Inverse folding.
């Protein structure tokens, strides 16, 4: 790491002490990461996030007091909103979808290698979406059963979906494209209706499975492919 580079400030939320200690040992090996706090339950994770303003919260789903998905949702209302990466034993796709809809930028299973956890932290902190490969494959397989309106997404809608796949929130997409946040919301609603999906995670995987978006092997946003016969706004 460059001596002028500021390390990522990480809050670690995990209820099992042995897992939390082991995870911290992994994080401490990377000079680009500093663990600024640890929480053993959901309410403590929220309180510490508000107090410490970390860059990223590494979050377990099964936290006592308040589950990780609800913690992620409430983190979005903080004055300084951190990125969120889930590290969980649960591979249920509905959990994954609920987590990403709550504002999570990545979802890894606890079977991940230490190097993958470190790489995912840096990627999510940089605004990329990261999914554990088995989860990404399961989502892609699920996408094959989704109904798709034959109307092709516009180039502008594809661009919004590409930015969403990088973990950008509506207000960040609006700033990037110099449009209003409500306009972004309207475009996303149109996208969901056209694709017959319930939310942005489903829309992203749906589009990626058809080659309109390129998601890397780890599920990271990595650019776009224009769909055939796409029209411009």
């Amino acid at each position: 790491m460059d001596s002028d580079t500021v390390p990522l400030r990480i809050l670690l939320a995990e209820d099992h002490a042995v897992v939390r200690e082991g995870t911290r040992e992994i994080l401490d090996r990377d000079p680009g990461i500093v663990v600024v706090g640890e929480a053993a339950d959901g309410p403590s994770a929220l309180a510490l996030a508000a107090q410490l303003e970390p860059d990223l919260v590494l979050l377990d789903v099964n936290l006592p007091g308040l589950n990780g998905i609800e913690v992620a949702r409430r983190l979005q209302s903080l004055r300084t909103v951190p990125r969120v990466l889930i590290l969980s034993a649960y591979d249920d796709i509905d959990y994954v979808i609920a987590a990403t809809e709550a504002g999570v930028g990545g979802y890894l299973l606890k079977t991940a290698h230490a190097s993958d956890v470190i790489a995912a932290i840096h990627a999510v902190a940089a605004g990329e979406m990261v999914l554990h490969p088995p989860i990404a494959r399961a989502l892609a397989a699920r996408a094959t059963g989704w109904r798709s309106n034959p109307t092709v997404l516009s180039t502008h809608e594809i661009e919004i979906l590409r930015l969403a796949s990088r973990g950008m929130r509506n207000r960040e997409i609006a700033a990037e494209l110099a449009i209003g946040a409500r306009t972004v919301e309207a475009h996303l609603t149109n996208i969901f209706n056209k694709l017959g999906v319930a939310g942005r995670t489903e829309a992203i995987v749906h589009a990626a499975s058809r080659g309109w978006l390129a998601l890397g092997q780890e599920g990271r946003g990595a650019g776009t492919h224009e769909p055939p016969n796409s029209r411009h706004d």
Summary: The chain has two domains: 8-126, 145-224.
